[in-house]
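re: the backbone from monday

yeah here it is again, tokenized this time
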């Protein structure tokens, strides 16, 4: 496992948490928007809590046996639960099973019981379970986890990481110490991105809604496609449905719908405030479109996009679906 250094905007929350390492809560919920480094933080925190050398304030030493296990991804006192990708035996199944899984299922939680009942590999040590993203727990898995949180095994720490904490079962929420993970200021985010060698940092950061990690992993192809998509969408009712669809197809359904959702978010925002959030460099185009906008039709379209996103991982005919979506888009203008 590659353990990243703490991001500059996380230093304060780190000190706040680690100062109490001897009375660490048995369940922690790290919540906040995507792309601000919550999972990296959870992993750094786990390594530091398991480290044999770390003093009360510091990050993991990186040298002790515990850190060694951690970095080789086989620490016996650590588990990371994420939606599972099922391996498949035959090629025919490959496309189906490599599609992105979004749920953490009950067997994964049940699979923890041995881990939780065994004693730690260190005499006074703790065991840590990171669950990411916690809103990915399906109903059965959430209930199974709740039972564990109600009777927490000694020396076990659960760290839940959530992009959409409002989707988590309230009974689980209430058993966690909740930490709002910081979003860096624009200045801090841009400094970090430039240090990472990201070109065009400001435009990418805007497009990623202020999430620097999301912005930094936007590939050059993705960034170029976004610019092309915005140019085409700027034509409103005269947008070329087939051209849009062919630009979007290589991005995949989910990314295409994301791009459309951001564009519509800005249309909506601009309608009421004359401002945009994601498309600073297209602000005047969006403002112009707003004068031709049918608001009810836009809201209806946003609902359609929400539905399309839910089915984005289904193996439907993406090309046809994209064309339908873009056709619908051209109809939300007068
Ligand atoms: Zn260490």
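seq for it, each position gets an aa:
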């Amino acid at each position: 496992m590659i353990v990243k250094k703490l991001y500059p905007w996380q230093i304060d929350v780190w000190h706040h948490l680690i100062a109490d390492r001897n009375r660490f809560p048995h369940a922690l919920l790290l919540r906040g928007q995507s792309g601000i480094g919550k999972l990296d933080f959870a992993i750094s925190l786990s390594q530091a809590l398991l480290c044999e050398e770390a003093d009360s304030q510091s990050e993991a030493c990186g040298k002790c046996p515990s850190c060694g296990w951690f970095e080789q991804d086989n620490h016996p006192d650590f588990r990371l639960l994420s939606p599972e990708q099922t391996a498949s035996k035959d090629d025919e199944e490959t496309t189906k099973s490599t599609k992105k899984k979004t749920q953490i299922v009950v067997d994964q939680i049940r699979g923890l019981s041995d881990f939780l009942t065994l004693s730690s590999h260190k005499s006074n040590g703790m065991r840590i379970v990171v669950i990411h993203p916690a809103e990915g727990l399906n109903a059965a898995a959430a209930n199974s986890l709740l039972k564990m949180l109600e009777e927490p095994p000694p020396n076990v720490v659960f760290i839940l990481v959530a992009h959409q904490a409002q989707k988590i079962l309230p009974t689980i929420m209430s058993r966690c110490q909740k930490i709002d993970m910081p979003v860096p200021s624009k200045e801090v985010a841009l400094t970090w991105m430039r240090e990472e060698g990201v070109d065009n940092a400001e435009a990418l950061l805007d497009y990623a809604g202020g999430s620097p990690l999301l912005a930094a992993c936007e590939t050059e192809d993705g960034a170029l496609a976004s610019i092309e998509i915005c140019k085409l969408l700027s034509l409103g009712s005269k947008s070329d449905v087939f051209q849009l669809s062919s630009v979007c197809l290589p991005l995949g359904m989910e990314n295409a719908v994301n791009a459309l959702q951001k564009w519509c978010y800005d249309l909506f925002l601009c309608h009421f405030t004359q401002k945009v959030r994601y498309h600073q460099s297209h602000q005047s185009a969006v403002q112009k479109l707003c004068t031709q906008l049918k608001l009810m039709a836009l809201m209806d379209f946003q609902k359609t996009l929400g539905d399309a996103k839910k089915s984005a991982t289904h193996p439907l005919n993406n090309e046809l679906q994209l064309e339908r979506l873009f056709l619908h888009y051209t109809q939300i203008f007068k």
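The pocket of zinc ion is lined by residues 51-53, 60-61, 63-64, 66-67 (CB under 6 Å). The mean pLDDT is 86.
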